[in-house]
Structure prediction request, 744 residues.
Amino acid sequence: MRPRKANRLAAAESPYLRQHGYDPVDWYPWGQEAFQKAKAEDKPIFLSIGYATCHWCHVMARESFSDPQVASFLNQHFVSIKVDRQELPQVDEVYMRAAMALGGHSGWPLSVFCTPEGLPFYAGTYFPPKPRGGLPSFQQVLESVVAVWETRRFELEEQRDGLLSLLVPPSPAPGNLDLAALKSEALARLEAEFDQENGGFGGAPKFPLPAQLGFLLHLARQANAKAQLMLTKSLEGMAQGGIRDALFGGFHRYSTDERWFIPHYEKMLPDNALLAQLYLEAGHLFRVTRWREVGRKTLHFIRSLFRQGESLMAWAPADLAEVPHPFFVAGWDADTHGEEGKTFIFSLPELAEALTPGQLELVQRLSPFPWSDSPRPLALRPLDAEVARQLRLPWPEAKKELTGALARLNRVAQGKGLPAVDTQAVSAWNAMAVGAFCRFLQQQKPGQALLFPVDEMLSAPLEDEDEEELSGVPSPDRAWSASLAFARYISRDTYPLSAAEALWQFRWPKPGSIPRTIVKGCPHSPETLEDLAWAAWAFLEVFLTTGASFWLARVARLLERRVPHYRGAQGELFTTPDDQSVFPIRQRNPYDGAHPNPAAVLCRTLYRLFWLTGNETFRTWADEALAAEAQFVAASPHNATSWLLAGEEGQKTSVLVVAGSPRWASTQALIRTAHRHPHKPHMVIFLDRWPPSRQELFWLPVFQNRPAAGEEQAQAYLCRGSECLPPVTSPRELRRLLTETAGT
Prediction:
């Protein structure tokens, strides 16, 4: 067999670009060289955008980009550019919006045909090798584009201004927001789109949409019955459907059907981080242990199979060896050995061969869908006493049977092979994971994140929700030494914190910005608003988790330096900075997508910093950004729920300051009570008067005059806006105070 010839992408840093390094297509990476060649040779540009774990990207690569005849035609008539959307999301965003305007199609692989200047004039997604399902073949598309370019180019010249407008974002539409009315309108529109039978919104394909679910959780905290119903139905549907992997853990990208049954088998870090946090917080709010278990197991999956480390499972994908220690990878591929979902699907004969008769009956009873000879994902309802009774098994024996069945199926799945991994670390997504782990630490061992290895907490039984006082508090000596150690070094046991430290240390030296991607231990591509917003959010969560004040100083310093580079003339926030843009036209996006809107996430952090520091600049920036998007938010509030939450946080943020050492049981009891209350304050902070390095906090308004009640006795101060209430010292008093002040 003749060896394949390498092209320009073979030595690329991006794992996705390297996947195309031996295509016969004469690929160029995004950059001036490709555009200059197109202008010099008067050729149109074929722009292909995808990412390393994209199933249909792989399919089109096999069918078309590996075909010598198709490649020869491309090389003769086009300049072909390949873009990794994880590496350059700003390029993807521009052309995705243009593609939707041109033809209404979006997704990956994104196939765009442009003038040599980069103006798009035709776009689509996946094209098959032969006409199929109403789609032309890729070769037919290429020939049609060449015909237009050679015989009707004058039409493109006449449409130049219109084509250029596809790349320009809409102008800001400043205004004021009636938050109460818009929250009601958003809820009504979500209710209209809600799937009453299966949960979630709309039909197939169905995405989890953590921004909208987070909005429902916020309303559920305010005792909104409709929001609680929609949230509960959605969380249950996803937890019991095939979209959740019952074997390895974590969630797949989305469901291809409306029942959450058949997933698209790709797994992405941001989806899992945001859903883990959502399940943890909803589980605490409603006292639903199985939701907390889903959240914890999802974090355990991230810990074990999205990251290299000492406790990494021995059978994990070998690609993880490329990942520098503190970081989490971008995602798992949908394919195993070229077959979508191969690792995760089973037929009834496979189950019968792998399981004992008792285990098989148990799995079939727990499945919400019937099994057949056709392979399908493993979906399981929660095991309960009623199922055990039907099987005539004692409850402990039923749990043992299920554990044994899952272990057997896990081994079968491993034998099929594991998907490839996108090994680059995306800063924004790592920050989401850091924040999710911080929320878990706040709930499990508030104020003591440094004293307990996280792996132990992920594996240990969940603690009793109703327990008022903490037991098993470490000795003062251990707590004291850990507290001092944190200021200088982040240990391997506290890997969410080490990932946060690494994100801070990996900033680009000159602008002090967060790199978009980190590849093989080196910062690689430039910062986007998503990276800045989520990094700032994560750093603030680390401060709230540990009480280490230098994290608060870091967040403030980072945003003081970087936010001005994203602001427009009317205070709007662009998705790229003015000092590092790789595309000449900067973009804005007012709406939530698969994840919460980064500009809204940043505004929430800016408001929190204002309430903590009293720095009016932070509030002004957030106010102006919110006002700039007001008309867009008002036009479609259910697609902009992150802005509604940001606006509410800007009006009045509640801060609970617990004055007392983390060594004290009284401090722990107050912090945990606050985190587990339905009306949990926006921020819970413990203020340790010692060691002296933490006294830099004392000048901030929210921390002034906050003494402890006495030796070993902490006090909690609840502040809403600039008003603070008299302190309380017991969990019972704090619960009463939080309940009485809810909604004020």
Remarks:
- Confidence is low (pLDDT under 50) at residues 309-315, 464-493, 690-695.
- The two ends are 74 Å apart (CA to CA).
- Residues 202-422 form one domain.
